[in-house]
Specification:
By secondary structure, the chain is an alpha+beta fold. The protein contains twelve helices and 20 strands. 47% of the residues are buried. The chain binds flavin-adenine dinucleotide (FAD).
Length: 377
C-alpha cells in the first residue's frame, strides 16, 4: 500500500452529495479521496432541473438549504460555472391556490421567506408569455437559484482537485468497507472515515441496512427543449399549481385541504402519475421541464410517452414558449426515505450513508456540515 492509498475521509459516489461532502471535508483540512464507479457521474445529479429550491424543503431543513444556497453562489464563482439568482413564480390556476398563497404570505416574512404575491394583471404585464386562462395570481419566491447540473457536476471535481487536493478515482466501484479498509477495483485503501453517497445503490454495500431503512426509488421523466430564440428569456422558474401540494411548504395553511380536493378532482390522471410541472431556462437558453414521480422498489425501466405528453400539455396551459421542439427526453431516479427528505444512517462506526431524496441539489452543500459534525470531524 502506498501513501496515495491512505486518506482521512473516503467518499463513495461523485454525484452532488459526494462532491458536497468532499468540499466540506477538504475545507476542514482533511485528506479526501472520492470513488466513483462510473467514468463520470451519471446519476440523478446530472439529470435534474438544477433548481436550488429552499422554498420546497420542509421548514426544519430551511437553514440547511439556505446555507447550501450560499455555498452554491460562492463555489460557482470560484469554480467558474453558470448560476442565476432566478427566483421562482408559483402560479395559481385555481381560486383555492390563490387563497393558499395569500394565506401563506401573511406569515411569510416572519417565517424567513422572501416572497410576494402578484395578482394576475401584474403577472401578465411582467410575463407576456403566461397564459391568462384561469390565472388568479402567483407567489414569487426570490431565494431560488438555477444552475446547469451537467455543467456544475462536471466542473466541480477539477475545482476540488486543484484548490483542495481532493483525489478522485473514477471507474472505481467500491465493493467492500471494513474500516480502516476500503476495497475498490481489487485494491485496498486505508481511511479514517467513510461517507457513502451512492444514490440509489446503497444495497450493494449495506444490503441489510438498506432493507431495514425503508428507502425506495422514485423515477421521474424529464424533457429539454432546444435553445429558445435569443430574444426570449424565462426570467424566473415557472412552477405550476400542482407543485403547491407536492412540496410541504403550505402544510400549515388552513386552505390547503380545499386546494388538494379541487386538484384531485381536476387533475386525477396527472396526480396518479405524480406529475407536477416546472420549467427552468439554463444558460444555453434551453428550457428544462418535468416531471412525474413513480415510487417503487424497482421502477419501470421503460418510459411512458403519455406521461411526457401530459407534462407538456400542462406546461402549454401555463405558458407559451416560442418553440416546444424537444432536444432530449430522459428519466432520473433518486432514493427516498418514506418520512425524511434527508436520511443519514450509521451502518458501522465512523461510516455514514446518506440519502438526500428529491432535493439533493438544494440540500447537499448544507447537509455536508451536519454529516461531518456527526462524524466528529
Ligand atoms: C429528474 C430529477 C429532477 C430533480 N430536480 C432537482 C432539483 O431541481 N433540485 C434539487 O434540489 N434536487 C433535484 N433532484 C434531486 C437530486 O438530483 C438528487 O437528490 C441528487 O442528485 C442526489 O445526489 P447523490 O449524489 O446522492 O446521487 P447520484 O447523483 O445518483 O450519485 C451517486 C453516485 O454514486 C456512484 N456510486 C454508486 N455506488 C457506488 C460504489 N459502490 N462505488 C463508487 N461509486 C458508486 C454512482 O455511480 C453515482 O454517480 C432531482 C432528481 C431527479 C431524478
Amino acid at each position: 500500500m502506498t501513501a496515495r492509498q491512505q486518506a482521512d475521509v473516503a467518499i463513495i459516489g461523485a454525484g452532488m452529495a459526494g462532491l458536497a461532502h468532499a468540499l466540506e471535508a477538504a475545507k476542514r483540512g482533511l485528506k479526501v479521496v472520492v470513488f466513483e464507479r462510473h467514468p463520470q457521474a451519471v446519476g440523478s445529479s446530472v439529470r435534474n432541473f438544477g433548481m436550488i429550491f429552499p422554498f420546497g424543503v420542509p421548514h426544519e431543513l430551511r437553514e440547511i438549504a439556505l446555507r447550501g444556497r450560499a455555498i452554491w453562489l460562492e463555489v460557482a464563482q470560484q469554480a467558474g460555472f453558470w448560476v442565476k439568482e432566478a427566483g421562482a413564480i408559483l402560479l395559481a390556476h385555481s381560486p383555492h391556490a390563490w387563497a393558499v398563497f395569500n394565506e401563506f404570505q401573511e406569515g411569510a416574512l416572519q417565517a424567513g421567506y422572501d416572497t410576494d404575491v402578484l395578482d394576475a394583471p401584474t403577472l401578465l404585464a411582467r410575463y407576456p408569455y403566461l397564459n391568462s386562462h384561469d390565472l388568479h395570481g402567483g407567489l414569487w419566491t426570490r431565494q431560488e437559484l438555477t444552475v446547469d447540473p451537467r455543467e456544475a457536476i462536471a466542473t466541480l471535481p477539477a475545482f476540488l482537485a486543484e484548490r483542495y487536493g481532493v483525489v478522485f478515482h473514477y471507474s472505481t466501484p467500491v465493493t467492500h468497507i471494513d474500516l480502516p479498509n476500503v476495497t475498490a477495483n481489487g485494491k485496498t485503501w486505508q481511511v479514517g472515515h467513510v461517507v457513502v453517497c451512492s444514490g440509489t445503490e446503497f444495497e450493494l454495500l449495506y444490503p441489510d441496512d438498506f432493507k431495514r431503512s425503508g428507502l425506495f426509488r422514485t423515477k421521474l421523466q424529464m424533457m429539454r427543449t432546444v435553445a429558445q430564440p435569443h430574444d426570449f428569456t424565462l426570467e424566473q422558474m415557472m412552477v405550476g399549481t400542482l407543485s403547491a401540494v407536492h412540496y410541504p411548504t403550505f402544510t400549515h395553511c388552513a386552505g390547503l385541504p380545499a386546494l388538494r380536493a379541487e386538484l384531485a378532482e381536476r387533475y386525477q390522471p396527472l396526480i396518479e402519475r405524480g406529475i407536477h410541472v416546472m420549467a427552468v431556462q439554463n444558460g444555453r437558453g434551453e428550457i428544462v421541464l418535468g416531471d412525474s414521480h413513480d415510487n417503487a422498489w424497482f421502477p419501470d425501466p421503460f418510459n411512458d410517452p403519455e406521461t411526457n405528453r401530459m407534462i407538456l400539455a400542462y406546461l402549454q396551459s401555463m405558458l407559451s414558449l416560442p418553440t416546444y421542439q424537444m432536444a432530449q427526453e430522459w428519466e432520473g431516479i433518486y432514493s427516498k426515505h418514506p418520512e425524511r427528505v434527508i436520511y443519514l444512517h450509521t451502518p458501522a462506526e465512523r461510516v455514514r450513508m446518506l440519502s438526500v431524496g428529491g432535493l439533493g441539489m438544494t440540500l447537499s452543500f448544507g447537509q455536508a456540515t451536519e454529516t461531518l459534525n456527526d462524524l466528529g470531524l
